[in-house]
Amino acid sequence: MSDRQDPREEIFVVERPWGQFQQFVSNETVTVKVITVEPGHRLSLQTHENRGEMWQVLDVPIEVTVGERTWAAQPGESVWVPPRTMHRMANKSDRAGRLLEVAFGDFDEADIVRLEDDYAR
Q1: Which of 52, 81, 54, 49 is nearest to 65 (CA)?
Q2: What CA–CA distance (Å, rounded) separates 112 from 95?
Q3: Mind listing the pLDDT tens digit for each residue in 15-69?
Q4: Any idea of the CA torsion for 22, 27, 30, 35, to the nearest 10 degrees?
């Protein structure tokens, strides 16, 4: 089980002559995904036992729920979802939205506990 602290404090930006890069994690065991949420859709309201997730919103505002809080996370915003915390993402815009997900801890899709699901899974 991952009891990692919020990794957003370790994100940093390095300037280069050609622009910059933003570093999210270094030398840790993680799983990285880009999640695309189509307009008008949302993922299940869920929890995970064995991993925490950091989301970086890439394109359009994404409505996120973490615990009891729901808000429109803006492009460039980072969100931390601790292990065992109820969470969901939804796209209320008119175009597809992407999030970069960095999952810390043991990654296994089978550990998803769906509390609500629009697709009856």
Answers
A1: 81
A2: 27
A3: 999 888 988 888 788 999 999 999 999 999 999 988 999 999 999 999 999 999 9
A4: 20
